[in-house]
Design brief:
With about 280 residues, the chain is α/β, with parallel strands linked by helices. Helix content is about 35%, strand content about 20%.
């Protein structure tokens, strides 16, 4: 399958880009400056760029992380996070108590909300934002806790549907891996981010606000490195998708530098759909 060498060959077909963050514009440790440059050039020619991330934190916290990673602010118009969608669900459940399953660093998801925390024994529902120690734990370490949640028939909000993300050259588990295990056990799960429609609806509303007009779906392009979340999400809401191979699927596709065409086609066939185009990494 041929790789698109330059994003500029595709960019003028679109008015809006909904770009993934982790895996496209940074790897958790450093910014991919070539990708940032491509998105800045998209904006310079009149396009709108909305970053759409499954980070289980409010968009302003994501923005501060991007600043620390030296992602230029001119890279994007706005950010929509899984944390933003999670916060909207929590607001809808005002008055109910919750149990937070996740690391302390994710507590910003609750900032400014009227939240009553409770232990698993008495909580009304669970918000899962990730593993408490994603460097040493796996989802199976949470099986006993999930079995107890199931015995109480507790509803779970998954604040990050990603299964894994890159941290440098290492893959670490995310909340989606725990949520998927809970769902397989029979638990009820609401996934707040990609590939589910609510986060896209929120992102498109921000894009239209930035553009000052309605945007046709045919003029919107999603960019990402995940078949499970980014490709599936784009197909779900009916927009085109540009797949970046050097992210979380890099090793299974042959190599980070030279992805295998047959492996690519097999991956898309298993996912049930083809992207508009494929790039090794996002460059103008």
């Amino acid at each position: 399958m041929p790789l698109l060498p330059h994003f500029s060959a595709l960019a003028r077909e679109y008015d809006v880009v909904l770009s993934d963050v982790w895996g496209v514009i940074h790897n958790g440790i450093a910014a991919h400056l070539h990708a940032c440059d491509a998105l800045m050039r998209m904006r310079a020619q009149g396009g709108v760029v909305i970053l759409v991330t499954n980070a289980p934190r409010p968009n302003e916290v994501v923005a501060r992380q991007l600043e620390r990673l030296h992602v230029p602010r001119r890279t994007y118009d706005a950010i929509v996070s899984s944390g933003d969608v999670t916060r909207s669900v929590i607001q809808q459940r005002r008055g109910q108590s919750l149990y937070h399953l996740g690391p302390e660093r994710d507590r910003s998801i609750f900032t400014g909300l009227d939240v009553r925390f409770a232990p698993l024994e008495t909580a009304d529902y669970v918000v899962c934002s990730g593993l408490e120690d994603d460097e040493t734990e796996t989802p199976d370490d949470y099986r006993a806790r999930l079995e107890f949640m199931l015995s109480r028939n507790l509803f779970m909000v998954c604040g990050n549907p990603d299964m894994v993300v890159e941290r440098g050259s290492t893959l670490v588990y995310c909340a989606g891996a725990i949520a998927d295990l809970y769902a397989r056990m029979g638990g009820e799960v609401l996934y707040a981010g990609k590939p589910y429609p609510p986060i896209y609806h929120m992102a498109l509303a921000k894009a239209e606000s930035a553009a000052g007009r309605k945007i046709a779906p045919s003029r919107v392009l999603a960019i990402g490195d995940s078949v499970r979340t980014d490709l599936k999400g784009a197909r779900t809401v009916g927009i085109d998708f540009l797949f970046v191979t050097s992210g979380i699927h890099a090793e299974e596709l042959g190599s980070r530098e030279e992805p295998d065409g047959a492996a690519l086609l097999a991956t898309f066939a298993a996912a049930g759909g083809m992207p508009k185009a494929v790039m090794r990494e996002l460059t103008w």
